[in-house]
Design brief:
Length: about 425
């Protein structure tokens, strides 16, 4: 008997895998997927727990090292911030979002606190910046912050912190006068003093010879270059044994911007406090900038600026001489930057012209004292032995200790020459 033919459908069915094999394969795939998902979830949970522990150690105020109180105010504030940034259950469960939002909140809070604490200083610096739109915008923004800071007395907090950290801005530094039992000493390195370019007389009678019992009272005023020069100058004067010296030097100041720092008012306060017989001025490096006169901006470099600045210089000289003091005005030194160097030459011309028309005022040029024989900038100058001595700071503007000593000796020699003194042995 011949077997019946096999249909094509039956052949395909005979080649298909058994149902049990397919089911087992699918179960294995599903099991592997569940295992991978479980491992990923476990890793994510471990990462979240680690992040929470780090957060608790670094920021969370509920940690015992931060605040042992059971419910500190800081924790309530932070919880409020969490609810504000992340309302609902996500505030506790979404670790990544909580971290960056809280970091942003802390950063903004710290910035606001710093601005509030330092607002008076920031406003003061903005008022001293060049006149323009940026200055006006900064003053407008900072003025209410400064008012709040002053009203809360936060400036006292900043001042106390500065005292603790030893940060003191330059101000009036009084050098104790001569010690009566100390004989006059010869200033160090007298050979370093070039011949001062000072006038032979200031058109007044010589000053009385000072003594230890009745020392010559000298006040030195200036800007940041005055800080460089003033300390060494006061030390050299005090070393004579017959001079009592005070220094009032304020950085970033000058005569061009009384809205930032009022030097005429400062000088008057110093005159009333110290009653100096001589005033030494080393000021002007910050003055090449626009001025405001009668509410109008006067651009630097114009004839109107020269005229207005000359009047301020003359009034400053008269303020000192009207109080009975002689004045030694030291011109600005040469500068490394060509633009600033030209500006200092322009100011020095004004200083010399005003000194010539004000009795009691002597002008001392520092160009050959702190520069080359031709008045050019010099970083180093030779001492008496011919060895180079650094006379300027690396910025090409300020005066180094070696330069301060050199200028100090030149100033003392100019005082002797113009006022009939014998401070230099």
């Amino acid at each position: 008997m011949t077997p019946p033919p096999v249909l094509e459908r039956d052949q395909e069915h005979s080649r298909a895998p058994a149902p049990d094999a397919v089911s087992g394969l699918l179960d294995e795939i599903a099991a592997a997927r569940r295992a991978a998902t479980a491992r990923l979830a476990a890793d994510r949970e471990r990462a979240r727990r680690l992040a929470r522990r780090v957060w608790a150690r670094v920021v969370d105020p509920s940690d015992t090292w931060w605040q042992p109180a059971p419910e500190p105010i800081s924790r309530r504030v932070l919880d409020t911030a969490r609810r504000w940034f992340l309302p609902g259950p996500q505030a506790r469960s979404t670790g990544d979002t909580v971290r960056w939002r809280q970091a942003l909140l802390i950063g903004l809070g710290a910035f606001a606190l710093w601005t509030l604490l330092d607002a008076p200083t920031l406003l003061h610096n903005a008022e001293g910046s060049p006149i323009g739109t940026r200055r006006s915008a900064a003053i407008t923004v900072l003025r209410p912050w400064a008012a709040v800071s002053r009203g809360l007395g936060l400036s006292h907090v900043v001042g106390a912190a500065d005292d603790i950290m030893g940060r003191h801005g330059p101000g009036v530094v009084q050098v104790v006068g001569p010690v009566p039992t100390k004989a006059p000493t010869k200033p160090a390195h007298p050979a370093l003093s070039p011949a001062p370019q000072a006038s032979a007389t200031d058109a007044l009678a010589p000053l009385p010879a000072p003594t230890a019992a009745d020392p010559l009272r000298v006040l030195t005023v200036g800007d940041s270059l005055g800080v460089d020069f003033g300390g060494q100058f006061a030390d050299d004067l005090a070393a004579t044994g017959v001079v009592s010296a005070e220094v009032d030097a304020e950085v970033d100041t000058g005569l061009a911007r009384p809205d930032y720092f009022d030097w005429p008012a400062e000088l008057q306060a110093d005159l009333n406090k110290y009653h100096p017989e001589a005033v030494v001025v080393f000021l002007g490096a910050n003055d090449p900038q626009n001025m405001v006169v009668s509410g109008q901006a006067v651009p630097y470099g114009t004839p109107a600026w020269d005229q207005d600045y000359s009047e301020r210089v003359g009034q400053f000289m008269s303020e000192a001489t009207s109080a009975g003091a002689r004045v030694l005005w030291i011109g600005m030194p040469p500068m490394a930057a060509p633009g600033l160097d030209a500006a200092m030459a322009r100011l020095d011309t004004i200083y010399g012209q005003q000194a010539a028309v004000h009795p009691g005022v002597t002008y001392l040029s520092s160009w050959t004292v702190l520069g080359t024989a031709q008045g050019g900038f010099a970083q180093y100058l030779p001492n008496a032995s011919g060895a180079p001595v650094e006379v300027r700071e690396p910025d090409g503007t300020h005066v180094s200790p070696g330069g301060a000593e050199r200028l100090s000796q030149a100033a003392i020699a100019a005082m002797d020459h113009a006022w009939g003194l014998t401070l230099t042995p």
